[in-house]
């Protein structure tokens, strides 16, 4: 359980300039204990945060994000009187990281003993406190109270010295990045917690403030006089050294954890990652050398990425990183590691996904023209789709909508308040070669999309297309994937091969393999229904062999009659990787024609859409459970 700061990090997206010249800021959850709680959860520890957030949008964002990361929020109180704290951070050069704290009367700095629930504290195997937060008497008291309870209950007490002089009022407010100002009062305050500690971690400067002098060995000895805790000294690129017992004559006589050679991009958050990595080993009683190894690797990974909490590695990622002996100095260039990071930190898992596809544009224009209706009505009809999905889904996960920004914007906006999966098309309808709607610079376009919008791209693509056409489409898709990753959006790639040539049991699998060979890793595939079990087996095999983390496949409908779709579900549901469907015209064509023609009103249209969507939902679920039963029976028979 980590205790203390929880804020919003607003990270300059432009790198290599002054904060004055930065123009846009990425929003992440931050604050050293918050970052460590996220890092620990990603490494497989059960973690929780004790803090306060404001009753505002950012407070809610912190809660949501912690929940997504698997960090318990049972100890996160909402303070109705104060706002969530903000921190602006920038990357200027490898030695300069400007930082401004907006922490006046903010929620987390108001933490006090009333927030410390003894039972909750006793539920933890370890508590972590941070030095910076001890600058406020109320927080100091809360931390000491929590540590005392934890210690009496037999839990470990961990102290990250984490010194930010600006939050002790020792530097100008524009000097948030300053890491050291000697001050006897700070030293005295920090030393008070030492008798409670089992583990103390700090950089050389942090050891200097805690020990009360700038000779590192002397400072360590001063600390050792006050605690028998394990002491760990972080040494930036040189790794770390741990002192379980008496402080030796030379730093290198401690348990040395070698640093890793990586390009420094951003040191902010490295210490928090280091702590998470160290705890992953230490709390599971691993040898000190292993704890240091995990810690240095986590620190090095974060040093090479943008952001603090989002940069924290997962356990799977850390293991791959440690096992590899060939990594680029510029770690962000390690494509496989970046992919693993992306795939293992995406929010949520999807056992099933049933989507009402309403992102058609040309088809709605045609429907409107046929009925002589005003095209402005398309937006109204699309908004009905959200009501229909909600009627079937009733707030349950596993449902979604595909909606376009051209006519579906009102529905997209409204969908933000529901828990459903949202996909949004980027392709120019009907284009082959593939073209993008809106800006030709697809990254600029995606930068304006909310993060939870999954980018859907339909490509009319056949692996045997003429080379120039095929390559042109592939280049577009590679650009799209790059843009989606850089803007933090998931990508759903829809392949329709049947319109472009003959299709056999290998065609779609060959197309998918080609995309993997090119380096594409779409989060989702949307594929044509097929009644061939072999075709599905080939598809699944190809995906699993190339991207074990792919979220899955959804079936598209292509205006097929309902019975045909239901029959195709039976075959596809045998493959676990197929998660459901994204079907449009089969569901909406009839209702839309009658609604645009003035034959039915909104209510009747919602009834019809919901009924048809419901039929497919039931059919999919039936097909899926029949398959599960069949497999279970086969297992029993074996
Ligand atoms: N240049 C680097 N190369 C490799 N590893 C590094 C580098 N800098 C930091 N690390 C790793 O990260 C750990 C923590 O870094 P650092 O000493 O900068 O912590 P910190 O000042 O507490 O960080 P923070 O900015 O989060 O407060 C180091 O002990 C090391 O393991
Ligand atoms: O710890 C802080 O308050 C600053 C953070 O917001 C930021 O996440 C960071 O620099 C972590 O070390």
From TrEMBL:
PROSITE patterns the UniProt entry points to: PFKB_KINASES_2 (PS00584)
Segments forming domain DUF2090: 317-623
The protein's Enzyme Commission number: 2.7.1.92
Record-stated family: Belongs to the carbohydrate kinase PfkB family.
Official protein name in the record: 5-dehydro-2-deoxygluconokinase
Keyword line: ATP-binding, Kinase, Nucleotide-binding, Transferase
InterPro entries: Aldolase_TIM (IPR013785), Carboh/pur_kinase_PfkB_CS (IPR002173), DUF2090 (IPR018659), Myo_inos_IolC (IPR030830), Myo_inos_IolC-like_sf (IPR023314), PfkB_Carbo_kinase (IPR050306), PfkB_dom (IPR011611), Ribokinase-like (IPR029056)
């Amino acid at each position: 359980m980590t205790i203390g700061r929880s804020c919003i990090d607003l990270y300059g997206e432009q790198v290599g300039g002054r904060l004055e010249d930065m123009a846009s800021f990425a929003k992440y959850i931050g604050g050293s204990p918050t970052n460590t709680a996220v890092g620990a959860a990603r490494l497989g520890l059960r973690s929780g945060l004790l803090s306060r957030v404001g009753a505002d949008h950012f407070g809610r964002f912190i809660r949501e994000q912690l929940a997504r990361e698997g960090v318990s929020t049972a100890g996160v109180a909402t303070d109705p009187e104060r706002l969530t704290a903000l921190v602006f951070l920038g990357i200027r050069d490898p030695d300069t990281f400007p930082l401004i704290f907006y922490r006046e009367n903010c929620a987390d700095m108001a933490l006090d003993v009333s927030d410390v629930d003894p039972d909750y504290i006793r539920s933890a195997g370890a508590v972590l406190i941070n030095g910076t937060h001890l600058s406020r008497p109320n927080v100091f008291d809360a931390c000491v109270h929590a540590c005392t309870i934890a210690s009496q209950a037999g839990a470990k007490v961990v102290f990250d010295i984490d010194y930010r002089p600006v939050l002790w009022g020792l530097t100008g407010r524009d000097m948030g990045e300053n890491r050291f100002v000697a001050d006897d009062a700070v030293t005295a305050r920090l030393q008070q917690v030492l008798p409670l500690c089992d583990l103390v971690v700090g950089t050389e400067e942090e050891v200097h403030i805690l020990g009360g002098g700038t000779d590192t060995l002397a400072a360590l000895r001063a600390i050792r006089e006050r605690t028998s805790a394990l002491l760990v000294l972080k040494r930036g690129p040189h790794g770390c050294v741990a002192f379980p017992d008496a402080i030796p004559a030379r730093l290198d006589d401690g348990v040395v954890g070698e640093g890793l050679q990586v390009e420094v991009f951003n040191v902010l958050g490295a210490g928090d990652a280091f702590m998470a990595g160290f705890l992953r080993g230490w709390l599971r009683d691993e040898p000190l050398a292993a704890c240091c190894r995990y810690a240095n690797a986590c620190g090095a990974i974060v040093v090479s990425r943008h952001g603090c909490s989002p940069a924290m590695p997962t356990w799977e990622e850390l293991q791959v990183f440690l096992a590899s002996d060939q990594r680029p100095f510029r770690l962000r260039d390690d494509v496989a590691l970046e992919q693993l990071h992306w795939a293992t930190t995406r929010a949520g898992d999807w056992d099933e996904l049933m989507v009402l596809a309403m992102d058609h544009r040309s088809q709605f224009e045609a429907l409107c023209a046929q009925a002589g209706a005003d095209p402005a009505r398309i937006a109204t009809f699309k908004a009905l789709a959200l009501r229909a999905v909600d009627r079937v889904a009733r707030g349950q996960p596993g449902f979604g909508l595909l909606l376009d920004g051209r006519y579906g914007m009102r529905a997209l906006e409204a969908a933000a308040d529901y828990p459903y999966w949202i996909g949004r098309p980027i392709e120019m309808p009907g284009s082959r070669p593939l073209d993008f709607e809106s800006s030709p610079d697809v990254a600029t376009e995606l930068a304006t999309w909310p993060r939870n919008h999954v980018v859907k791209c339909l490509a009319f693509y056949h692996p045997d297309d003429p080379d120039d056409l095929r390559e042109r489409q592939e280049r577009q898709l590679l650009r799209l994937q790059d843009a989606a990753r850089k803007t933090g959006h998931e990508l759903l790639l829809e392949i329709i091969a049947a319109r472009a040539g003959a299709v056999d049991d290998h065609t779609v699998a060959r197309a998918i393999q080609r995309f993997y060979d090119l380096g594409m890793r779409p989060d989702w595939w949307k594929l044509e229904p097929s009644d061939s079990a072999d075709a599905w087996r080939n598809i699944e095999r190809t995906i699993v062999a190339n991207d074990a983390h792919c979220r899955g496949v959804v079936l598209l409908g292509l205006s097929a009659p309902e019975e045909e779709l239901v029959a195709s579900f039976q075959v596809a549901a045998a493959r676990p990787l197929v998660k459901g469907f994204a079907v449009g015209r089969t569901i909406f064509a009839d209702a839309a024609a009658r609604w645009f023609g003035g034959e039915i009103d909104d209510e009747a249209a919602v009834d019809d859409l919901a009924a048809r969507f419901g039929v497919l939902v039931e059919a999919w679920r039936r097909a899926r459970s029949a398959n599960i039963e069949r497999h279970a029976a086969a297992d029993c028979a074996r």
